[in-house]
Amino acid sequence: xxxxxxxxxxxxxxxxGVLGLIPPIxxxxxxxxxxxxxxxVMLAGCFLGKRTAAISLILFIVxxxxxxxxxSGGRGGLSVFVGPSVGYILSWPVAAFCIGYTTEKVxxxxxxxxxxxxxxxxxxxLVSLIGAPVMALITHTSIWAGLSGAVVFLPGDCIKAIIxxxxxxxxxxxxxxEEKVHGS
Length: 184
Description:
Blueprint: H1 3-19, H2 37-48, H3 50-65, H4 86-106, H5 112-139, H6 143-150, H7 154-170, H8 176-182
Helix pairs in contact: 1-2, 1-3, 2-3, 2-4, 2-5, 2-7, 3-4, 4-5, 5-6, 5-7
């Protein structure tokens, strides 16, 4: 791994932590709040590529596990990993990898709409399909109830997917993916 990739991974882990400073929006009927941190997951995937994005999110999770309160609402420590948000949090490296992998595959013909679709499939749907059932298991509710409750995240997450796609396409020329494709 190049020094530049390590720096990008660390910067995105920090960026996702900064997004955690924005207060969460708690919902009364689901124990997982609305946060902006999934925007960082999508940006990491479509800007950094599969490997660096996944490493960035793993680094973020390790730092949170060590007790640094980087999650929205100032949460951190091992207790986070037994709470209702754990499925969502642990899905982030998988989502970032999948977004990065797919983005790398379409890089030669990159268009904003393609990245929006990639972000929705992996940054919205995949995260919900992993996070909601785990939340349901932890809260002792049905999987169906967890998935139904997670529908509340879809509009905001789709907006985040669009924002991440627009930003990624705008900064395409400085992306590490660009270097891989052109061998710089």
